[in-house]
Amino acid sequence: MRKNKISFGRAVSLRVKELMTQHKLTQNQLSIETGVPVSTLCELLNVKHENIIPTSIIAICKYFKMELSEFFDSPYFYIDFLQIKY
User: Fold this and answer.
1) What integer pLDDT is reported at residue 19 of this predicted model?
2) Torsion angles phi and psi, residue 82, rounded to 5
3) CA–CA separation, 60 vs 16, rounded Å?
4) Which of 2, 3, 14, 29 has the largest CB neighbor count within 10 A?
5) Spacing of C-alpha 49 from chain mean position
6) Residue 13 and residue 9: Cα distance in Å, rounded?
7) What is the mean pLDDT of residues 45-71?
């Protein structure tokens, strides 16, 4: 099991950064293409809040033509890797 667990917000951030790198997109380009404000993307990518807005993830998934299940089908979201705070 992985020793250093990450928060859900960090997992989302890493996944979006991974997709941006794969598709060679900047924050500004992703914002324009998805309609998600740059400020919201910045907060998401820099994990300013742990409460992720689902509509942002949905917009990102629509742009990349992927289902939510595909977005979350990543090692970043393995339960044993996530730090859970109650």
Assistant:
1) 98
2) -90, 140
3) 8
4) 14
5) 12
6) 6
7) 93
Q: In degrees rounded to 5, what are phi and psi of residue 20?
A: -65, -40
Residues 6 or more apart from 41 whose CB is under 8 A from it?
Answer: 16, 27, 30, 31, 56
**Residue 33: both structure tokens together:** 């293409």
Residue at token pair 């997992």? 11
Distance CA 31, CA 26 (A): 8
> Does residue 11 contact residue 82 with C-beta atoms inside 8 Å?
yes
Mean pLDDT (the chain) is 92
- State the distance between the two ends of the chain, measured CA to CA, in whole angstroms: 21
Q: Which of 4, 85, 20 is nearest to 50 (CA)?
A: 85
Residue with tokens 């044993």: 80
The two three-digit tokens of residue 56, written as one number: 């942002």
Cα 37–Cα 34–Cα 74 angle in degrees, nearest 5: 105
